[in-house]
Amino acid sequence: QTCALPIYGSLLPDYRGAAPINWAIINGERVTGVTTFRIRQEIDTGNILFREEEPIHADDDAGTLYNRLMNRGANLMVKTVDAIADGTATEIPQQLEQGNHPAAPKIFRETCLIDWNKQSDQVINHIRGLSPYPAAWTELNGKACKIFRAKRADGLKAATPGTLHSDGKSVLEFRTADGWVSIEELQPEGKKRMSTAAFLAGHKI
């Protein structure tokens, strides 16, 4: 008898959908994980077999977290198959009607646009959750520019969200609702991915 056993990149029933790893980081979660479950006709709703947690570190992006979850998931699949084989696996129905379970909908280009009206931590989580792919983006010099890494910046005066500050050498900062975010790695439209210093060496702001 054959049995399809999917493995999923979240702690089901949280983050059911197309992009669970991305949305967990975007939403500022501190913990996610992997789940093995039985297939049902409705996507990602089958009975849970095993779940294992994985911490989300402050410097994680979707790529680094994916790699760790892939390794953890491989081990969890072995555990699941062994438990089914020796008859010790138990199935737990997903409580889909109970609680407020965050979703993980498909990500579109407009999803990736950075909203500088949000707080700095939200902006940084947005960038981390979409890096390296499909990548958050903003408009810079009149063109779309992907942003891969950013951090909080302090010491600048208040300004309208979206205001840009640069020293023309190594600093490129955007005002948010509650502070400033410093861009560390970006990719201008039609160019390769590069550091902010490399970008400013060849572009005037």
- Report the span from N to C terminus: 64 Å
Provide the residue-averaged pLDDT.
93
Question: Using only CA atoms, what is the Rg?
Answer: 20 Å
Largest sheet at a glance? Answer: 6 strands, antiparallel
Assign a percent range to the helix content. 25-40%
Spell out the helices and strands N to C. Answer: EEHEEHEHHEEEEEEH
Give the uncertain stretches in residue-range form. none
Explain what you see.
There is one protein chain. The protein has 205 residues and is of the alpha+beta class. It has five helices and eleven strands. Strands 6, 7, 8, 9, 10 and 11 form a six-stranded antiparallel beta sheet that branches. The protein has a three-stranded antiparallel beta sheet with strand order 1-3-4, covered by helices on one side. It has a two-stranded parallel sheet with strand order 2-5. A hairpin with a 4-residue loop joins strand 9 and strand 10.
Annotation keywords:
elongated, alpha+beta, six-stranded antiparallel β-sheet, 205 residues, single chain, 11 strands
Helix-strand layout with pairing:
Elements: E1 7-8, E2 16-17, H1 20-26, E3 31-37, E4 48-55, H2 62-86, E5 103-104, H3 109-112, H4 120-129, E6 136-140, E7 143-153, E8 164-166, E9 172-175, E10 180-188, E11 194-195, H5 196-202
Parallel strand pairs: 2-5
Antiparallel strand pairs: 1-3, 3-4, 6-7, 7-10, 8-9, 9-10, 10-11
Helix pairs in contact: 1-4
